[in-house]
Write a structure and sequence with these properties.
The protein is mainly beta. The chain is built from four helices and 50 strands. The strands form 13 sheets. Strands 40-41-44-48-47-46-45 form a seven-stranded antiparallel β-sheet. A hairpin with a 2-residue loop joins strand 35 and strand 36 (about 320). It starts with a strand and ends in a 6-residue tail after the last strand. The relative contact order is 0.09.
Amino acid sequence: MKQTLIVCLVLFMFGCSQKKEMLSLKLIPVKQGEYWGYVDKDGKFVVNPQFKRAWTFAEGLALVENTEGKYGFIDEQGKLVISPIYKSALSFSEGLAPVVKDSEKIQYIDPSGKTALTLEEDIERAQGFHDGLALVEAGGKLLFIDKTGLRKFNCPFEDVNQFYDGLALISMKMKDSNKQGFIDKDGKIVINPQFDLASPFIEGIAAVKMDKKFGFIDKTGKIIINPQFDEVQIFGEGMAGVKQGELWGFIDKSGKFTINPQYKQVYPFTASGLAAVKSISNDKWGFIDREGKIKIEPQFERVTPFYDGVAVSTADKKYGLINTLGKYLVNPTFEDYEMEKETYSFDMKGVFSDFFSMSAVTNLLFKDWNTADFRGISKTTDYNKLQDKFPELTHTNYSGLYSFTKERNASLSLSSIHFNFANGFEQTAANGSKTYNDYLPLKTVTYYFYLEGKARDRSGEIMKALKDKWPSRFTTEPSDSNTYILNSSEYSVGIKQEGNLISLIVAFEKSALDFLRPLKIISTDTNDLFLTPDSAAKN
């Protein structure tokens, strides 16, 4: 049986530099056959394979996905402490984890599984907290919230990163290309966008690229190590891997080489005091200490950095676990492994909610349906009266008024209004000129609404949900699943959905809605077949 050992390392992939927070590998997620479980450092299963997916531990809990595609959390004893009831979730960060259930708002839970924060309905995507703030998306716009849910500031940038060391990396359009800079926790630009590439701040230093070379800046934006390298990594344990020409070495924070370029590839130093390096002599991986001395001879086809005293290594196309002495904790008997790389670059991942507010839909659709009139329009309303309500109305645009920015929310927006007057309103003379009878009343008025945001993805549910939401004084006629006809003593309303478009046709003559009514065969004579609207009014 093929076994896959997967260690989920959280790396910021700028080069191959490590994320500042260290991982816990006391229990290691592994895949055996079709399912995931957890082994200890001796390779013994502590949690038997039973999950569809499993992640490394963060803040004492590990995210798992069950075979039904639901997410929950286990503790370091392998006990399921937060039931798998979520359709999406992320690992814990700063004491909170973003989670979401089907058709519900995004929440943040604490390690006991209790809800600490429920986000507002228009927030459709959210990441974990970093430096006390979380990056979220609402209405297609990125913004930051604090742990109370307070919206701190919007992000009018091309892209934005999470906060590290008090600053967040942004990308802005500058002339013909994007440039990167940094904002503070008030959303103020503190380091102007001027770099072709940049990394988050780690240990008070960020890598930047200018004129095809990489260097480093401090938190004031001052260049402290001139751009001179072909590739770089973020500083880890006071040292950073840098590449000059074809070879990698390590520098300190003054920019001085502490280990001269001599390796084909390197990984950063971790708390173990070791860094993985790839030898140019045999193309194998080993480990060096901070003085550049070889501590584990180059012998592996692939390795990962050390976390919790454990690294994944490869020999003869087999994979196992080694300790910091290079001794096998688990012999290389696994056929494959994967390294999960969670990037905190400009990729807005996170949990996504498909929740939308049905009340936001009905509040616009059923706005001002009064007994005698619809939104102030009645069967006695003519063109002159309409102009009082719609000053932009003219004889040339009455068939379509557009732009109603105030009638818009996260779920619905009014696109246009179309008026249809009684016959004779518009007349054409023999010479082609047109005249208008401004005193003829309306026959119909049609409001066109478009579903927005998450409501667009749930359009099939809208009409079903509307059925019990309209004003009770209206009676209904039989109709299909995409059409409703409602009648009152003063007017009738046809509601029709076509994809993401919902039309409200208000008719002051009931027959004006015949085109929405089902057709009924009234004669079976094949030579004389007639169809007629089948309406409640006629039955």
